[in-house]
Amino acid sequence: QVQLVESGGGPVQAGGSLRLSCAASGRTFSTYVMGWFRQAPGKEREFVAAISRSGTMTNYADSVKGRFTISRDNGKNTVYLQMNSLKPEDTAVYYCAATKTSWLGVTSRGGIWNPGAYDYWGQGTQVTVSS
What residues in the chain have per-residue pLDDT under 70? Predict the structure, then answer.
């Protein structure tokens, strides 16, 4: 089991940047595929980005591609989400998630973009982008 704690959220003006961090407990962080999701008020939780166990493979939602970058440091048990050129529509609670299923195997659970494919979730961090 792994516990996830997000940090780095807050208010920011449109065009600005934020870097979210997600710290994981335990010694098996490198065995988890990690993802970032977000949920705006009144909307369903949506996929933002995911990264493979080694960090060599990544995947992004079209809405953030070219603006957000996911990365991980397995030595620090941490996954990051660098968010640049932020827009008001990026306002949401951002969640970190982990799955023990492999990068390829996660397709059997609906895909890397499916919240149901993830086994563990953090408590979320609020990001508010003002125009």
Answer: none
